[in-house]
Amino acid sequence: MRKIEAERIKKKVKELFLRANYHIGEDVLIALKEAREREVSEIGCSVLDMLIENYKIASGEEIAICQDTGLAVLYVELGQEIYIIGGNFREAVNEGVKEAYMEGYLRKSMVDDPVFARKNTGTNTPAIIYTDIVPGDKIKFMVTPKGFGSENMSALAMMKPADGPEGIKNFVVDTIKKAGPNPCPPTIVGVGIGGTADKALVIAKKALFRKIGEHHQDERYAQMEKEILEQINNLGIGPAGLGGRTTALAVNIEYTPTHIAGMPVAVNVCCHAARHAEGIL
Questions:
Q1: CA-to-CA distance for 221 and 201, rounded, in angstroms?
Q2: DSSP per-residue codes, 196-234
Q3: What is the largest CA-CA distance in the chain?
Q4: Does this model's pTM top 0.90?
Q5: Angle at 184 (CA atoms; ends 23, 175), nearest 5 degrees
Q6: Rounded distance, CA 28 to CA 14, Å?
Q7: Contact in structure between 169 and 154 (CB atoms under 8 Å)
Q8: Please, what is the end-to-end C-alpha distance for the chain in angstroms?
Q9: 26-38 and 42-61 helices cross at what angle (nearest 10)?
Q10: For residue range 91-101, what is the model confidence (pLDDT) as tens digits?
């Protein structure tokens, strides 16, 4: 049994959220530069140039990539051979998020009561935490500051098995068409298929962590990703919604087993600021 201090968990979470808010992934930068070369819209090219410059400034100055520094979302793989000492796991995570947002001058966007008072918690906590217990004696953190311009474009369809691949493709493309400029394109589109309604939404968001350029290991799903991406980029929405060929940089599909009577399909959209970070304790 390996012991890990709660203080170390707090420090790791803080480090990851600061990194995610300040530094964009190299895969995103490469994808944007390649999209810039393909883009036919003059305005679209200008938008992509500004995004690339913005990322360089944010990284160099260590300031937030976007004014919406998102809600703190974590996917945690917690080794079953770990014993946490000196504190509570959830409290340590929330303290790490709090320190990152307070000390990093990041906007706090969490309200306690979602309907009536809507009072800001002032710390961007509590975080949204998904935990899987896995073999081993390590903790893997996958974190994302999820902005709500894109989050508000999420969609769920409780489809019938008979709808098949074409039904899924039509639903995803229609979701992005309806979203228009709202999720700050170019986007990354996460698709979760299977499980229950809530499980499909969870894996759709987790799909956003996959690096751009990496496709599903199952060639059938990989082909579906490519076909959906092509259809989305033929919509003409373009960078910032101002027209062009670059509406999405990637479509990432993940699936999980489901009931014989259903086929839940969820879409979770990530804006051009594809902010995420990973770390292991």
A1: 18
A2: -HHHHHHHHHHGGGSPTT---SSHHHHHHHHHHHHHHHT
A3: 59
A4: yes
A5: 125
A6: 23
A7: no
A8: 14
A9: 160
A10: 999 999 999 99
